[in-house]
User: What shape does this take?
Amino acid sequence: MYSRSTPQRCAANISVVGVLGIFAGEWVAYHVLAQPEAGWALLFNVLLLLSVWSYLQTCLTNPGTPDCDEWQEWARIKKGERTDEQWQKDAEQEAEARGTQREGVWRPGQSSWCSKCRMERPERAHHCSACGLCVLRMDHHCPWIGSCVGWRNHKYFVLVTWWSFLASAVFLLTLTRPSALQAILITPKTVANLSIPMVIAVMSVIIFGLLTGILFVVTVTGIIRNVTTIEDFYQGENPYCLDSTWSNLQEIFGAPDLRWLIPVPCTSRPSDGTRYRTRAAASTQGYGAV
Assistant: This one.
């Protein structure tokens, strides 16, 4: 959705509509075809609502492009009294001098130069070839949201996978007419009570639940290690991995409270998206150089 390319934005919109269609189909299958008990239906609706809310937040939140507030404030400080042209020229010359155009290298406290965007960018920012933009602490480009997962929407992406997995689990565990097991293990005794749409729905929910569950585990594992999908291929020790799992989680989720569980903006995140704590500086609450 934040791509510079019109075809890419159109494709992103189609993806979003498609995923929302999956959520809608799951709701119809559960309520219309299965007709669950009221208590389970209420729980399923709450979980599905949280899933859709988290998904929309992930899609509609700027992941950390140069237009976001954090990047704009960083650029204002870096630019100083120079013109835009002079600032970028100085940044390119500095990058060439210190060899920071090489990829796959840890550079705590250092900005870098994007040869595709022809601009300086904050540390841990990366270029997305699909969007044609650099993104703060870019984790990966996700075709299901039509955008990148980055500094500003990473938490929401985690919540999408978590709540969607739970909604799928409740769907499968509370079906009674037929049960999920009956829909999968079709026998002569049960075939008369089954409908093709219900069988398709159950199989789809199983696939969706497995996919979101795996994504949740993979994503949270990266957050616990304070590393993005891109940085996971870097060589050497990760300087951003802090001393405790708790500290690493707060980099994405902010101060621990109930807002960890709902897709609302984080509070009191230790880093600001353009500079980050390192293990060496964490003991003094320090940051990398701007």
Summary: Strands lie at 112-114, 119-121, 126-128, 133-135, 140-142, 147-149.
